[in-house]
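Slide 14.
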Amino acid sequence: MQVLALLGSPRKGGNSEVLLEAVTRGMTQAGGRVETIRLCELKINPCLNCGGCDSTGECVVKDDMTALYPRILAARRIVLASPIFFYNITAQAKAFVDRCQALWSRQRLLRAKGEWQQDPGQKGFLLAVAATRGAKVFDGATLCMKYAYDAMGFLYGGDFLVKGIDRKGEMAANTMKLKEAEEAGRRFMA
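Slide 15: predicted structure.
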């Protein structure tokens, strides 16, 4: 089963990356073929709200996002990992999400022709790490990703959220949470 793992953290080797590695390890153990992409290494321009995708379902902006569209459509599972910045995903991850407007337009066009069918086997997951322990610290990111996966044609399959992790290395030191993350990765493949 093809898995697209997207790292939204700009910090190389940071807590979100360590968490993503644990989850994808579990996914691989459960039979997943994982491709990991570091979004901060790509040039993904923001959505221009130009309406260019309205009639074609294809984004008119040509940058590194262009190569991600077929990977999204081919995936059975997508996992996006991000630290929480101001109660949401990072700017790098949000640029990716906003450019999925083209996929929403594609879906709308296929529905109008009677050619769209929701595939319940395509699921998207959110992994997030937050420094604070606020009751609503993940609300913005979770809501954002539920709508993002819907735009991609994926069902929201769940999340793995970790509070109270801030300094680089703290996630790697939390072996219990990493074991839980690995198990979550196996469950995400079911």
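Speaker note: The chain has a mean pLDDT of 98.
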